[in-house]
Design a protein that fits this description.
This protein has helices at residues 22-25, 29-41, 55-61, 94-104, 142-156, 173-184, 196-214, 233-248, 251-271, and strands at 11-17, 45-51, 68-69, 75-76, 81-84, 89-91. By secondary structure, it is an alpha+beta fold. The protein has a single domain (11-275), classed as Glutaredoxin (3-Layer(aba) Sandwich). It is globular and about 50 Å long.
Length: 279
Amino acid sequence: MAAPSKSSEAMIFYDIAMRPPIASTCCSPNPWKSRMALNFKNVAYSTTWVPFPDVAQVRRALDMDACRKFGDGTNFYTLPILIDSDTNSKIGDSFDIAVYLQTKYPNSGSGNLFPPQKLDFVFDQGVPLLIPLSDQKESGYGEYSQFNTSVDEAFSNHVGLMAHNFPFDPVNMEASRAEFIRRAGLKSWDDFDIQGEKREKLKESLRLMLGDLGKLFLRDTSGPFLLGEQASYADLIVGGWLRMMRVTLPENEWEEVRGWHGGIFGRLYDGLEKYAEVK
C-alpha cells in the first residue's frame, strides 16, 4: 500500500444516520461507495451523520444542488457529500467523489481507483425507476461511469426485497417511513413487506442478475476482485450495494446471496472489509 495522503485538514464526509449503533447499521449504497473510496485512498476524513428526515435540509444548507430528480421532475436531495477545505471543494455525488479523490491523490493508499478494465455488464431494467439515477458528468472514466449506472439500475430494481427492513432510528422512524411511502407512491408501510410467491420471484430475479454480473468476476480468479488481487472502484460500486443487502435483507437471505454463484459475492464482501472502516 502506498503512503497515506497528506492533507492540512481532514475532509468532511456526510452520510445518512440509521439507528444506533450507526457504524453497524449505515446501509445507503452510494455513501458506502464513497466511504470505501476514501479508505482506499487512505485520506484523512471525519463523518458527519445526518438523520434521514434532515437530508434535504442539510444539502440545501450546504448550497448543494440535487444530483437526482424524482420521476415527476422535482428535486431529490440525498447524500453523500464530501467537503475538502484544502481546495474549497464540495462534491455531492458518489462517482464524482471517487474521481475527485483519484485526481487529487493519484498514488495514495491502495493506488489507482480506475485501472483500465472491460466492464461490459448491461442490465435491462424493463420498467423505469421511481427515482432516476444521477446524470454522470464526463470524467475520463466512461467505462466505470456506465458500469456504475448499470449496477445501480440492477440493484435498484430489487430494492423491494430490502426496503421494509431499513433500520430507521426510532427517534425519527415515523417521519422516515412517511418519506419512503411518499417516494414510492404507496399507501402504508406494510405495502413494502413483500412476502410469499412475489418475494421468491424477486429473489430469483436477483439471483439471475447477480449471475450475469458475476461472470465479470470469473475473468481473473486469483482474488476476490474484478482484477483478481487488485481492487478498483468497480468493486466498490458493487460493494456498496452488498453493504446495503447485508443490513436490510433477513439474515438467512443474506447468507443465500453470499453463497450464490460459487460464493463470488461473499468473497467480494469479505475482500472489501479492509476498506469498510467507519470513521
